[in-house]
Amino acid sequence: MIGFLAFSISRAWQGFWRNAAMSLAATATMTLMLLLLAGFFIVQNGLLAGLAFVEQKVEVVADIRDTASDTDIGTLQRRIEALPEVREVVFVSKEEALQRFRDSRSAQGQEDLTRYLDANPLRASLEVKLRNPTDFGTVMDSLRADPVIERVKNITDLVNQVITVTEFLRTAGLAILGLIGAIVLFIIINTIRLAVVGRAEEIEVMRLVGASDAFIRWPFVFEGALVGLLGAALTLGAIAALAEPLGAFMFDFFRVLPIRVGTIAREVSLLVLGSGLGLGVLGAWVSVRTYLIR
Fold it and tell me: Which domains does the chain have, with CATH numbers?
């Protein structure tokens, strides 16, 4: 068995360089297709990271009654923090709320009108950050049931819009990734088939001298694996060289994107290596099978 594998690998290496033009063309096609697949995968991950970042910004804001004591507020804050749907609870005092309003007016280049007021009209509040935006209903009901809370801001429409957009983009991203994968598979199979067609005479001669299907097939399969691995290596090299400028472009494009190419290097490497090897083996297997079933 080991001897047969060694023989098949040796034949694959010889076949690759014996038909160097077609082999290099198949490798170049493999590299371009893997770059397309990896590029979309990186962009999709960046988009999903951006969506997750937006989801984390969804929060429930509850205004606290002016008559509430510090003890009542502390008790409420601890109770809300204990909810499994809650990631973090931030208490905003009346003074902090007023300062935020002033900073916002200043950032917009507008006059601070609060200096003409005799008293601070803003209320203290609790900002509840959620683990999942879909859990907002449970948190809102829990806050409304507490006598310390005067009003809970309704974010139903906002949450529904965020959930609708994120689910659509996630589904569309997976569908497009699958479509690109199918296109890549089709192109690679046909590219490797051209290489096999160029050696149809060699296959016929081997069949005439009594070679078994396995004896004919496995060298081509290993040759396809070689094309896939070489294409994957070239793709990873190109991605490594472009990682820094690509990461900067993605950050500038998405603005709030908390991701760099380096943070998903393991996933990209596994995708490229797995796809390259799998496509090369499958393409060679399907291409040679055309001749063996005649």
Answer: 2-54+162-292 (no CATH), 59-154 (3.30.70.3040)
